[in-house]
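Exercise 7. Predict the joint structure of the components listed below.
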Amino acid sequence: MKCRECLEHLYEFLDREITPELEQEVREHIEGCEPCAGTAEFETLYLKFVQASCRAQGVPPELKRRILHELFGE
Amino acid sequence: MRPIAKPGRARPLFGPMPGPTPAPTPVDAKRESFEREALVHLDALYRVARRLTGNSADADDLVQETILKAYRAWDQYEQGTNAKGWLLTILRNAFINEYRRRVRHPETVDIDAIEPFAVFDRVQDDDPQGKFFDRIVDDEVLRAVDQLPESFRETVVLSDVEGMSYQDVAKILGVPVGTVKSRLFRGRQLLQKQLYDYAVTNGYIKRKDG
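Solution:
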């Protein structure tokens, strides 16, 4: 596998949405290629960062109360 | 979400011992399963609604409407399957049908017209671990997400924030899995670029031409 192909499939690889055959090819490429390994690490950190930042937000307590009241009259 | 405590059944001090607990009524059972399987996703529904509508008043209404619709249709949901995907589909359909025209104008985006931009290429020498990300506060990240074109925004939010599979995202949005993949590829690049530009503007990192 070449770098270009590896980067093409990198997100599928990181998202665990890849066929077992490609998974192995990407893994082997990354193990032997420093730039691609660096990209993979960076993308992993980025995805974790975005998820953590955006998940800090949740349903406002007042809305939750209103919904429970609508549903169950409490 | 914590289930709501049911009022305790008072045990009589005198008189006969209470018999066996009566079987739960259908209403109790419905409520119990709805709390356990649906209401635990309230935070996720709110986050997605907030990103779709772009404002909190419409997000409130959209979430409330979604939950009421879901509760009415609860017997159509096959318990123990993918409640989050089922709820998000209801929410997204309600958004398309009732809110989108009002609050946002869907823009058509030519994916190929978006210039590829790999942030890693710019930062690999100075900050290969992306430490500059950690200096960006949550609100700024949310603002950057809100600036993505709608088709990328909803794909990124469902996948990257809510952790839905490609297949689930495709089902919720009614597009092929291949479209989800290409939108994620570009959407992530766009968002990274936004965050990178923000970090450069604020002096968290030095701009570097790729």
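Discussion. Chain A has five helices and no strands.
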